[in-house]
Design brief:
Region (Disordered): 40-60
Subcellular location: Cell envelope
Helix content: 25-40%
Structural class: alpha/beta
Family: Belongs to the bacterial solute-binding protein 1 family.
Largest sheet: 10 strands, mixed
Protein name: Carbohydrate ABC transporter, N-acetylglucosamine/diacetylchitobiose-binding protein
Low-confidence stretches: 1-45
InterPro entries: Bact_solute-bd_prot1 (IPR050490), Chitin_NgcE (IPR022386), SBP (IPR006059), TAT_signal (IPR006311)
Shape: globular
Number of strands: 10
Radius of gyration: 22 Å
Mean pLDDT: 90
Distance between the termini: 8 Å
């Protein structure tokens, strides 16, 4: 995506027809950076393992007898895929002692170890307590994974690992220039998730424009079903459908300007139109009662049980709620509905990108072992293990042959095919974690969707947050190249 300016004042059709009901005043939510100290420690461990002998079978010069420590985020994808890959490492290097652990509290568990200079060798840095990628990169806490990407792939030594990956994966791991700091292992389709069965019971199809979306929500409400729900305690899920909606209305350049922290980027008419459309769901009482108090599992559970039609989410939701999603649910994902005919991008425009960010800390004892574990994970066999166990695509460009695809996965693949080149990839969530989650998410969108702030004041607040981030010299800043 380019970095062209996104400030124009042309009319946006239906936007001027949207009417709002009154809302309460804005309530600010105190926030603090939960990673501000994470990369501040200067302690260092100099006892890195000695490299092994480089060979065709060992291109990264792994020390086969050195210990390896892996920490995995235990979330929607579970840990089976990572344990399967660990077993391959142990078979390949039988003398190595591999320590494997899983947690949902990545930041609180690992921050002290980063500060002390004793981090694990490989980390799945994901979840609500994800460590701030921008801080880690800016403080030089991560290993450049270029040697991994340039190494021969497991399946075909004639191919480099980088040549086996889905489009955009390598670029996502870059923050400023050529080094690649992160390997996003999952390939996530974000959007509006729903039950095709639930729509069929309402004699409806997925709404391709916002008027039809509102009409369907009204129809569902008469049947005692809410139109939408979302993780109210984690409202940074809302952008999974809201950001591509903004791009659809105003063009990709609007998101680029937002990512680049350009002045007045959030004041673009496309942002205003998208916020007002979402606020209409609040004003017309189409949000499931109690949603602001629900976490991700609570909202997903209510949705899976049929209490709401739609939820903004990522493709991990199929695996995360597998135990309660009915067999006849027909899980599907929809791209953002069109606002009106003046939208800059076609219906089908969707957000899809790498997910589950794996990192090898620069102060890890066994850097080569960490990268080798990733090389194993980026094989066809490991990719199939991931897809089979998680119902999601991996970064490996393939790995689905012979696997019976689930409803959600089939829908995600179909959505990508329909989108074609109209796939967007906002970078705020990995460039500026605090801005995205605590400020835009909790303190702004969370308040608006709870009915405690109107769109105009929410936009003003977000722009102030973005401006402060842009001016903060302690923060490493990034731009689309």
């Amino acid at each position: 995506m380019g970095s062209t300016s996104a400030h124009n004042n042309e009319g946006l059709g239906r936007r001027d027809l949207i009417k709002r009901s009154a809302a309460l005043g804005l309530i600010a939510v105190p926030t603090m950076s939960f990673l501000s100290a994470c990369a501040s420690g200067d302690s260092s461990s100099d006892d890195k393992v000695e490299k092994g002998e480089k060979s065709d079978k060992n291109p990264l010069a792994v020390n086969g007898s050195a210990p390896l420590e892996i920490v995995i985020f235990d979330g929607g994808f579970g840990t089976k895929y990572a344990e399967d890959a660990k077993a391959v490492y142990e078979k390949t290097y039988p003398e190595a002692k591999v320590k494997f652990s899983a947690t949902q509290k990545i930041q609180s568990v690992l921050q002290p170890r980063f500060n002390g200079g004793t981090p694990p060798d490989l980390i799945d840095n994901s979840g609500a307590q994800q460590m701030d990628m921008g801080v880690l990169v800016g403080k030089k806490q991560l290993t450049d994974l270029t040697p991994l990407l340039d190494a021969p792939s497991i399946d075909d030594p004639a191919k480099k690992v980088r040549d086996t990956l889905r489009p955009g994966i390598v670029e996502m791991g870059q923050f400023d220039g050529d080094p690649v700091w992160i390997m996003y292992y999952a390939y996530t389709v974000y959007g509006v998730w729903y039950s095709q069965t639930a729509l069929e019971k309402l004699d409806a199809t997925y709404p391709e424009n916002w008027d039809d979306m509102l009409a369907l929500c009204a129809k569902a409400k008469k049947k005692g079903i809410a139109g939408w729900t979302y993780p109210g305690k984690h409202p940074y899920y809302l952008p999974f459908s809201l950001y591509p909606f903004i791009a659809k209305i105003g063009g990709v350049e609007v998101l680029d300007a937002i990512d680049n922290l350009e002045p007045k980027a959030w004041e673009h008419p496309a942002v205003k139109a998208a916020f007002e459309a979402y606020y209409e769901l609040v004003a017309k009482d189409y949000i499931l009662d109690g949603t602001p108090g629900l976490d991700h599992r609570g909202s997903q559970g209510a949705w899976a049980r049929g209490k709401a039609l739609f939820i903004p989410n990522g493709s991990w939701v199929e695996n995360e709620e597998a135990a309660i999603i009915p067999k006849d649910f027909k899980l599907s994902v929809g791209a953002p509905s069109s606002l009106d005919s003046s939208d800059k991008m076609p219906f089908g425009t969707i957000w899809a990108s790498g997910g589950e960010p794996f990192i090898v800390p620069s102060k890890a004892k066994n850097v080569e072992g960490g990268m080798e574990q990733l090389r194993i994970m980026l094989s066809e066999a490991s990719s199939k293990s991931f897809t089979a166990s998680t119902k999601s695509l991996s970064a490996f460009n393939g790995g689905t042959d012979g696997i019976e695809l689930s409803d959600g996965l089939k829908s995600g693949v179909a959505a990508l095919e329909k989108a074609g080149t109209n796939v967007v990839n906002p970078r705020l969530q990995d460039w500026y974690v605090k801005l995205q989650k605590e400020q835009i998410g909790v303190a702004a969108l969370g308040e608006m969707m709870a009915g405690r702030a109107k769109p105009a004041e929410t936009i003003k607040k977000i722009q102030a947050f973005a401006d402060a981030t842009a001016k903060d010299q302690s923060i490493k800043h990034f731009k689309h190249q």
